[in-house]
Amino acid sequence: MKHYQYSLPRTNLIFGEDTLKNLGIExxxxxxxxxxxxxxxxxxxxxxxxxxxxxxxxxxxxxxHYSGVAPNPTVEIVNxxxxxxxxxxxxxxxxLGGGSVMDTAKNIAIVAGHSEKxxxxxxxxxxxxxxxxxITAKTxxxxxxxxxxxxxxxxxxxxxxxxxxxxxxxxxMSPFIYPRLxxxxxxxxxxxxxxxxxxxxxxxxxxxxxxxxxxxxxxLTGLHCLKAxxxxxxxxxxxxxxxxxxxxxxxxxxxxxxxxxxxxxSRVILPHALSHAVSAFYPKAEHGLVLAxxxxxxxxFNIDRGDEEVIEKHCExxxxxxxxxxSSTKKEAFKSVDAVERLLKKLKLNVTLQNLGVDxxxxxxxxxxxxxxxxxxxxxxxxxxxxxxxxxxxxxxME
Length: 399
Ligand SMILES: [Fe+2]
Known about the structure:
With 399 residues, this protein is of the alpha/beta class. Strand 6 and strand 7 (168-173) form a beta hairpin. The chain folds into 2 domains: 12-189, Rossmann fold, CATH 3.40.50.1970; 194-398, Dehydroquinate synthase-like - alpha domain (Dehydroquinate synthase-like, alpha domain, Up-down Bundle), CATH 1.20.1090.10. 51% of the residues lie in helices and 11% in strands. The protein binds fe (ii) ion.
């Protein structure tokens, strides 16, 4: 039997409708002065920023606001936020937003916690290049209020960061960046526009399909992944069409949490490895859209070359999408790709890398970037892929 060892979440989870009002009471247990990290204006427009500030102030917390965090946050964005936290003596970091905002907050908590007078760059904690600083309990406590159902960042120990100079987007993993408090307020999720619901929802599906098929998958991963797949295939189109439907938002929020936990017991594979390289070259390309352009091609590649277990797992994916699988054969396994392509069509996510502005001349550089920053996920793919094959997969993603 396979031996495995995990670090389980150390997160206090709050989930339901109108839960934001309870924020201050819980944050007060973690610190006195909060760096509040937010992204675009939408949280302000819908009144959730005000509600967050009110709840924190009501409990006597001081707030330093760091706003405007962009998708695919860079080393500079993180280091600047950490400088702000240090200069103001913040002792807790609160994120209100999607994956980029939550990841930025996690990265800031690492840098601010491990820096004294001068900021130590987040890149020194990030892995590529082999000189990695250790992430310790000095990391500031993190509070994550998710505004999307997508990354699972509010319940996992990962954060990503992009280095624009080296053109690498990499993942940071540490048990110290499990948020101490994760808050899901379904009212916030109801404010998501359809296109954001679609791309973040597809990210959830990618996490669970990849973790399930990954070489690092095990029986516990399967439990989380299969349920989450079923929820996404059943509810994402409805959440996309009826944003105010609490039941569908709840289903997607649950799938997001299950996907976050799946990342604890397994690892993503080629779609994420390749999509990070695209983001490193094109930071404005939305993560969910890049995944949509790449995933069907990679699934075909894996089914085509995979062993019996890979075939069987893709048959399971097809079943979770409601497909009838008669026997575990390669032909049947391809039904999983059909199901994913049907879903992408319903969500208007049937895009190519070319549609996203990717230039053919960058493809070779993107292959190198994926090997430099995402070697782990490449190696976790159930079918080993050479540089030439990865280049071919990028090319297929362009078509
Ligand atoms: Fe993702």
